[in-house]
């Protein structure tokens, strides 16, 4: 297409804000990470000793495990924690049913076991209700207990009316309780109301909780120092990874070649960091971030730039998945396709080294299915078609991007993700459907008004309003109910026994968590300032003062 023809083409372009993180992630010497690692090793042994000593009392043991979880250091002791919880759960059937265990302790124990896939009965809360099944009014004065019950209720599954009641009961009273509480507890309550623990990315949860734990009179100084140093140590590694991805963006000159697209590699990294933050996944986090960055570019290409002819050619080239396909593309789509082929070459090489190359074809297929569904949405837009809600969701769930991302994430988890795990992903399991629904509907709720300002396919909000003949307000209430039901499905699917190893199931759970973070108040991916700027800064820019 000539430059004259290019200038005559109508493109429904969006006006996106600039990258707010540019040049904030310079390279860091590897010795910094190694130095802090040496400093924390003796502290790690002390904390391990504390964990083993807590076995003497099962309730204290579970509470200490909870502290490790909330401080973000439980990953150091995964095997010990698994064995201890398994022993307690199967040998102490009546652990929390006695009348002497208070609401706070009961809620913590329930949440910890549920989080680890042990389906403790919600009947443990019966003792806190009246004959009519309502929670006792006397509980309202117990701020810590109410907060713990609120957090525990988010581990509910379908049909657990007592936990639905617990959530409604605590939500109705916690804000007023905060006004009567100490400044520390009040801040903790307000933080939880905004970002419930179960819906919070683990690293962000740890960053927040470390500051709360520091103010506790009963804090253990060695444990606190270990948590702070370990957070800062891993943050150094994460900064290095973002620097690597920033170089990737510059090396391909995306800012100039694809100026219509969002420059969101730091936001993309935040998503992938939530998938798994541990140091052992460093290479895969970088590759996943490159992939999601390219997916974001692809989204903007199909959504706000490409012509029908260009998008058809791009889709055909991706289907061929070979270097020769580039010859048939326009200059800007050639840049995208070349970068994709290069990144997947890196994925293929690393998977071969780690013995998981059997899953690479699944990753490529998942990526092509994503592009095909982007293309389907673009056709709806160009044709002026408003699909039914079910028709829309069947396509738009796939454009939430999670299928290719989680397929690649499984590649990075070694042989724990055997061939059967990739076959499981292809079977469209309930947890994947629920995670896709959360990502898609939350995104649509906060972005549909902005997107409808230009030529754009309808969102789940418009489709649902038209199909059900509802106002926007009523449609949003129904969609919120679908979101809560999806969370219940995720929780149920994580309960033992599970179809695949639980370590794999935690990845779609973490994707749902980062979706909640980015979309709870607005479209934090497209507009990080003001929605997620402070959170990203806390995670990757500001170390914790020691």
Verbal overview:
- There is one protein chain.
- With 546 residues, this protein is mostly helical.
- Helix content is 67%, strand content 0%.
- The chain has helices at residues 3-8, 30-53, 58-71, 78-91, 103-115, 143-153, 161-180, 183-194, 202-214, 221-251, 254-257, 265-275, 282-304, 308-320, 331-354, 360-383, 389-396, 402-411, 419-426, 430-451, 460-468, 472-493, 502-519, 528-531, 533-540.
- It is globular, with a radius of gyration of 24 Å.
Shape: globular
Poorly predicted runs of 5 or more residues: 1-7
Number of strands: 0
What is the structural class? mainly alpha
Helical content stands at 55-70%
Q: State the end-to-end CA separation.
A: 59 Å
Our Rg estimate from Cα atoms comes to 24 Å
Instruction: Report strand %.
Output: under 5%
Number of DSSP helices? 25
What kind of sheet is the major sheet? none
Mean pLDDT: 94
Order of helices and strands: HHHHHHHHHHHHHHHHHHHHHHHHH
Considering the chains and any ligands shown, give keywords for the structure.
546 residues; mainly alpha; globular; disordered N terminus
Quick rundown:
By secondary structure, the protein is an all-alpha fold. The protein has helices at 3-8, 30-53, 58-71, 78-91, 103-115, 143-153, 161-180, 183-194, 202-214, 221-251, 254-257, 265-275, 282-304, 308-320, 331-354, 360-383, 389-396, 402-411, 419-426, 430-451, 460-468, 472-493, 502-519, 528-531, 533-540.
């Amino acid at each position: 297409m000539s430059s004259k023809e290019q200038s005559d083409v109508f493109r429904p372009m969006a006006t996106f804000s600039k990258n707010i993180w540019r040049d904030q992630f310079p390279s860091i010497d590897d010795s910094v990470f190694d130095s802090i690692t040496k400093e924390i090793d003796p502290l790690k042994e002390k904390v391990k000793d504390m964990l083993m000593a807590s076995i003497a009392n099962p309730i204290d043991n579970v509470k200490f495990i909870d502290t490790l979880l909330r401080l973000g250091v439980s990953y150091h002791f995964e095997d010990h924690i698994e064995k201890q919880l398994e022993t307690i759960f199967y040998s102490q059937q009546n652990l929390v049913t006695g009348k002497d265990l208070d609401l706070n302790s009961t809620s913590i124990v329930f949440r910890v076991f549920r989080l680890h896939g042990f389906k403790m009965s919600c009947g443990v809360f019966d003792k806190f209700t009246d004959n009519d099944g309502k929670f006792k009014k006397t509980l309202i004065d117990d701020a810590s207990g109410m907060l713990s019950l609120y957090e525990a209720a988010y581990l509910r599954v379908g049909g657990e009316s007592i936990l639905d009641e617990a959530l409604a009961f605590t939500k109705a009273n916690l804000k007023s309780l905060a006004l009567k509480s100490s400044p520390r507890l009040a801040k903790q309550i307000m933080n939880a109301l905004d970002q419930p623990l179960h819906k919070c990315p683990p690293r962000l949860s740890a960053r927040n909780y470390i500051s709360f734990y520091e103010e506790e009179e009963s804090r253990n100084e060695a444990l606190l120092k270990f948590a702070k140093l370990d957070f800062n140590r891993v943050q150094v590694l994460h900064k290095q990874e973002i620097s690597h991805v920033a170089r990737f963006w510059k090396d391909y000159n995306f800012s100039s070649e694809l100026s219509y697209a969002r420059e969101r590699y730091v936001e993309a990294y935040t998503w992938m960091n939530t998938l798994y933050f541990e140091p052992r996944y460093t290479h895969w986090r970088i590759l996943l971030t490159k992939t999601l960055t390219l997916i974001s570019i692809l989204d903007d290409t199909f959504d706000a730039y490409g012509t029908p002819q260009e998008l058809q050619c791009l889709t055909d080239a991706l289907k061929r998945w070979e270097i020769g396909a580039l010859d048939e593309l326009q200059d800007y789509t050639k840049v995208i396709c070349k970068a994709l082929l290069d990144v997947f070459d890196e994925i293929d090489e690393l998977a071969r080294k780690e013995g998981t190359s059997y899953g690479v074809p699944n990753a490529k297929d998942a990526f092509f299915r994503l592009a095909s569904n982007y293309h389907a949405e673009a056709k709806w837009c160009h044709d002026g078609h408003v699909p039914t809600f079910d028709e829309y969701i069947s396509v738009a769930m796939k454009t939430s991007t999670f299928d290719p991302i989680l397929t690649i994430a499984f590649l990075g988890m070694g042989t724990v993700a055997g061939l059967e795990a990739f076959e499981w992903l292809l079977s469209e399991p309930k947890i994947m459907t629920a995670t896709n629904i959360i990502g898609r509907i939350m995104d649509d709720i906060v972005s549909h008004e902005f997107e409808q300002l230009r030529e754009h396919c309808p969102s789940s909000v418009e489709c649902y309003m038209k199909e059900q003949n509802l106002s926007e307000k009523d449609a949003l209430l129904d969609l919120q109910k679908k979101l809560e039901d999806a969370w219940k499905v995720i929780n149920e699917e994580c309960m033992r026994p599970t179809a695949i190893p639980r370590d794999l199931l935690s990845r779609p759970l973490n994707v749902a968590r980062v979706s909640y973070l980015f979309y709870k108040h607005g479209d934090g991916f497209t507009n990080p300032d003001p929605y997620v700027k402070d959170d990203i800064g806390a995670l990757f820019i500001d170390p914790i003062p020691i």
